[in-house]
Design brief:
This protein is mainly alpha-helical and 351 residues long. Helices cover 53% and strands 9% of the residues. The protein has two domains: 1-35 and 202-351, no CATH class; 38-199, Glycosyltransferase (Alpha/alpha barrel), CATH 1.50.10. It has helices at residues 3-13, 39-56, 59-76, 99-116, 119-136, 170-173, 183-196, 207-224, 231-251, 258-273, 281-292, 322-339; strands spanning 23-24, 27-28, 33-34, 37-38, 77-78, 83-84, 95-98, 146-149, 153-154, 255-257, 310-312, 315-316, 319-320. The mean pLDDT is 96.
């Protein structure tokens, strides 16, 4: 089987998507169990299943996208707060809502609604975007990354990038572009991100944490793609790709993440196709080779075909990760299309 068939089979059949439609954050190969279901990862899963259906026309992928969407509608939506909750609350725990997660979920639902022509899923995606605007976009202040539910009280900011406002939030603000009347919120988030992105990297003296921030900085550059025709945004995309490439190669001997290789490759391919910067074919080929090297080959169906999250000191970490798998399969599919002269990019299709 091809890398794409194996990756798609892992997403469909390994158990990473559980019977209720939710997708686990990762599979722990050393403990042989799934981590808890993540609403954000289920949103990514919905987008990925739609992408795989578009490539293959296999009905099983569209069915999986709809199952993921139904889980989000029925179990992840917090009725009292009108927001998508982070993971699923456990006994004695408060629910939280992340701005980033809500945007990823909404984009996944929009993708599933378009592919399945499902009005109910579309309404849920639209409601999610409107609730993001109401709860997070407050008086031109920085978007709070996390709210406590049901009060919608922002949690205090923390040094971790995911618990602080930042340019990476632009990826989720892309969801607002799918709803009439919300483009101004996306545009404002672009302005804020352009003002703050320079200090996001390196952002830490620990090189492993810098690698994690590269993943988040990729989100920022991905979020800029809808504004690529703006000269300032195009220049930031050009210089940002170079910054990412340099940091990635400096840190890789110590710690490397498969998703960063894949995200950088996707950015290069989008930037070339959109006329932002010509593709550096040698570096792109290296990133494709590195991405492909994280795919698992294993007799256990819970592992085979998925992609490892990362490698430390040359050794794979025991996380078979759905987002790593999704980003790598899209990047490698795009690379194959580019190589054969058949790449046609759609910003809407970026997972």
């Amino acid at each position: 089987m091809s890398f794409l068939e194996r990756a798609g089979s892992w997403l469909l059949k390994s158990g990473i998507q559980e019977p209720n439609g939710g997708v686990a954050r990762y599979y722990l190969s050393d403990r042989q169990c799934n981590a808890p279901i993540s609403t954000e990862i289920t949103g990514y899963g919905a987008s990925a299943f739609v992408y795989l259906h578009a490539l293959t026309s296999e009905a099983a992928y569209l069915d999986a996208a709809v199952r993921a969407s139904r889980f989000l509608l029925e179990q992840a939506w917090d009725q009292e707060s009108d927001l998508f909750a982070f993971e699923l609350p456990r006994a004695g725990q408060h629910s939280l809502a992340y701005f980033f997660d809500c945007g990823i979920i909404a984009r996944g639902l929009f993708a599933a609604a378009r592919a399945a022509q499902d009005a109910e899923i579309y309404r849920a995606a639209r409601a999610g975007c409107l609730s993001m605007a109401d709860a997070f976009a407050m008086n031109n202040a920085p978007i709070p990354p996390v709210l406590r539910l049901p009060s919608k009280e922002p949690l205090p900011f923390e040094p971790r990038w995911s618990r602080s406002p930042g340019c990476y939030q632009l990826k989720s603000a892309m969801a607002w572009l799918s709803v009439d009347g919300l483009k101004d919120l996306y545009d404002h988030t672009v302005e804020e991100a352009l003002h703050s992105h320079d200090c996001f990297l390196p952002g830490d003296s620990d090189c492993e944490k810098v690698m994690d921030r590269l993943h988040a900085y990729c989100y920022f550059l991905e979020g800029l793609l809808p504004s690529h025709s703006d000269p300032e945004c195009a220049e930031v995309l050009r210089t940002g790709i170079v910054r990412l490439s340099c940091y990635l190669r400096q840190i890789a001997p110590v710690f490397e993440r498969s998703d960063v290789y894949a995200q950088l490759l996707r950015l290069r391919l989008y930037a070339d196709a959109l006329g932002i910067v010509p593709l550096d074919r040698a570096l792109a080929a290296e990133e494709a080779e590195q991405s492909a090297g994280f795919q698992c080959s294993h007799p256990d169906a819970r592992i085979d075909g998925g992609f490892y999250f990362g490698r430390r000191g040359g050794k794979f970490l025991p996380f078979i990760n759905p987002v790593s798998t999704i980003f790598c399969l899209q990047a490698l599919a795009m690379w194959r299309q580019y190589d054969s002269g058949g790449l046609r990019v759609s910003i809407e299709a970026l997972i």
